[in-house]
Amino acid sequence: MQQADQVAYLERMLCMVRTNTRDDAPGVMHTPVEGYYDPVRYQREVDLLFRKYPIVAAFSSQLRNAGDFVVHNETGQPILVTRGTDGVLRAFLNVCRHRGAAVEQKPCGANKRAFVCAYHGWSYDLTGRLVGITDAATFGEIDRSKYGLRRLKLAEKYGLVWVVPTALEDNEDTSLDIEGYLGALNADLSGWDMQGWELHSSEPIRPRMNWKLVIDTFLELYHFRYLHPGTVYPLFLDNIATYERMGNHMRWAAAKRSLTELEGQPQESWRIRDHAIVFYSLFPNTVLTYTQDHCGVFSSFPISPDEAVLRFSVLVPPEEKAAKPEKYWKANVDLFANALVEDLGIGETIQKNFRSGANRQQTFGKFEKALGWYHQEVETAVDDVVLKKSGRFGRFGPNIAC
Fold it and tell me: Within 10 A of 65 (CB to CB), how many other CB atoms are there?
């Protein structure tokens, strides 16, 4: 985050403290409750957002060397990401072209030379090329070039690895213009410079709630005083935050109680991570949280209209990891995890109550505007699917993920 933006955000939040105001939208916003459980709407979201959009599937720290690999199944597509001996990172569907079994069973690993299907032993090199067929003579003159692993679009940037989870045809380009997709966020993510950061931990959580409802929990601080009195609320000023829409992504900051210590200090010395947590919503399903010495990465994936997987990961700069004991990092992870237990517990209740008929819509107050923005983006994207099927195109044009 650029220094000028840091100062502007901190000054805006200090002004809220002085005047007892909030970063309000012009008015109240709504989204229909059916959007959290309707199976038709759910399938449209999966077919578009989790098949055609870039999804954070891995971290650079997991894939630094030739033969490193990561398996990612949480989009509903079996994804295999690996770095070749040529240094190139590639993504494939983790599906043998013989009979459809997975060619890699482990979630991650290193020093891989080839991927071998456990079913019949067909093998593939790190570029996805079919290199071995057991009892090959029984298959006749098979054209192995037509039986390589199905490739996916991939981009590695800012310590994150994005994949578009839809198989490409043989002649399609695997490159992904992630800078074009991120737009105004590039400058910020470049400034955080996470390329060398290490993955400290990564855990899946399986709440019984819609994947969008999981994201909702990260988009406002209004609930902190009531739901988190003993966990994260003591760290923050009450609902002092500032929000900004950046294309279909968002950036916002939540003020810590130390914010008021900046009064009277020269602005050139202000550093936002000392006095706030900075959040980024990477559309459609990932939230980055930058604290003083690490980044929490929260990605929500759909299982069914009423179920999700929340992947909670922590990235740490190597110098910070070396300087602090493991008990320090465990305490930080536990703090977030305990707050998530509170969030997801009440979220599961909300999911059950959607079908009660009590409410036809979710109501977002003026300082819950990030929720309204997010659901506008989801609704616009899903509506664009209908336009594309009819031969017309919405605001992203015909090549959403390219």
Answer: 10
Task: Give the whole-angstrom CA distance, residue 36 versus residue 39.
Answer: 9
Residue 286 within any structural domain of the chain: yes
Tell me: the pLDDT tens digits for 155-193? 999 999 999 999 999 889 999 999 999 999 999 999 988
Helices (H), 324-368: 326-353
- Do 240 and 148 belong to one domain? no
117 touches 96 (CB < 8 A) = yes
Sign of CA dihedral 25, 27, 33, 37: negative
Q: Report d(CA 169, CA 146) in Å as an integer.
A: 10
d(CA 19, CA 92): 54
| Domain presence at residue 401 | no
* CATH number of domain containing 42: 3.90.380.10
For the chain, give the number of residues. Answer: 402
| 3-state secondary structure at position 134 | coil
Contact 42, 375 (CB under 8 A): no
337 domain-assigned = yes
Boundaries of domain holding 168: 55-175
Name which of 243, 265, 275, 282 is nearest 155 in CA terms: 282
Going by C-alpha positions, the residue among 113, 116, 147, 155 that lies closest to residue 130 is: 147
Task: Give me the residue label for tokens 């060398």.
Answer: 196
Q: Which alpha helices (H) appear in 193-250, and where do they start and end?
A: 211-216, 224-227
* pLDDT tens-digit readout, 332-348: 999 999 999 999 999 99
Helices (H) and strands (E) counted in the chain, each on its own, are 10, 19
Q: How far apart are CA 77 and CA 82, in angstroms?
A: 16
Does some domain include residue 390? no
Give the Cα-Cα-Cα angle 273, 278, 282 (nearest 5 degrees).
145
226/309 same-domain check: yes
Compute the distance between CA of residue 246 and CA of residue 229 in angstroms, rounded to an integer.
31
Residues 238 and 115 placed together within one structural domain of the fold: no
- Model confidence, pTM: 0.93
CATH number at residue 69: 2.102.10.10
Rounded CA gap, 345 and 244, in Å? 28
Residue 220 one-letter amino acid? E
**Packing angle, helices 369-389 and 39-49, rounded to 10:** 80
Question: How many domains are contained in the chain?
Answer: 2
